[in-house]
Amino acid sequence: MNFLRRVFPLAGLVIAVASLSGCNILIPDVAADSPARFVQETSPVFYQPPGVDPRRVRPIPDQPVPQTRELYKTQFHQTYGLPVTNPVHMAMYGQLRDEDFTLPAIPVSRVQPQFLRQEVDYETTERPGTVVIDTKAHFLYFVEGNGKAMRYGVGLGRDGYAWSGRGVIQWKQKWPRWTPSVEMVSRQPEVRPFGAENGGMNPGLMNPLGARAMYIFKDGQDTLYRVHGTPDWQSIGKATSSGCVRMLNQDVIDLYDRVPAKAEIVVM
């Protein structure tokens, strides 16, 4: 019995050592710290086509970085990936459903930026609510007060047909009828079918008065001078009409909603 007690613990120890002899727990892998082995295991593998000596292949020269500043010639248009057209302008001058008509969108990219609607600094002695037309610069200002005004680009009459002075916007009209004056009919016989005797031209997208008209009176008399819309957006900033102030249809709708009844107007 004493012999067995001594043999069994030794036999168990031998079996345990034999079972661990196949593991690395007792035998550390000292080669894992070898720099040569590290390089061998981590070196990249490149594709080498048969018959090509990589030592004789010349590297591709560095390509110049594209210069985005050459995309637009002026410093103002250095957008660096941003849209050139102001998205606010796209919203203001987009397609608009008004009354029974749908106004088409205006290609704002083809209109000079200074003639698009914008709030500007404007020092004046005129009261808020007054409309001021600068005929030389082709701007219409709606005075807001506190040194601010809403500015619009306008088309004006040719020399000899323009009116200037101080008056009152006696009344306003949505989608007005156009009735050319007797003087205009005498100068342009082609508009005779729309004369007063024929009831004028019906409202519509091609009506020369556009979506809105504001009629200017002085001393209680009609000056025959109007602030109105126009389907001819290309005339804004130019002197092409027969005397009236023409605005983009989207702009004249905006101005119409701002101008109070019997507002004063100054044309200079």
TrEMBL record:
GO terms for molecular function: glycosyltransferase activity; peptidoglycan L,D-transpeptidase activity. Coiled coil: none annotated. GO terms for biological process: cell wall organization; peptidoglycan-protein cross-linking; regulation of cell shape. The keyword Cell wall biogenesis/degradation applies. The keyword Nucleus does not apply. It holds the Pfam family YkuD. The active site is at H228 (proton donor/acceptor), C244 (nucleophile). Pathway: Cell wall biogenesis; peptidoglycan biosynthesis. GO terms for cellular component: extracellular region. It comes from the Bacteria. Keywords: Cell shape, Cell wall biogenesis/degradation, Glycosyltransferase, Hydrolase, Lipoprotein, Peptidoglycan synthesis, Transferase. Residues 129-268 form the L,D-TPase catalytic domain. Belongs to the YkuD family. This is Lipoprotein-anchoring transpeptidase ErfK/SrfK. It comes from Rhizobium esperanzae.
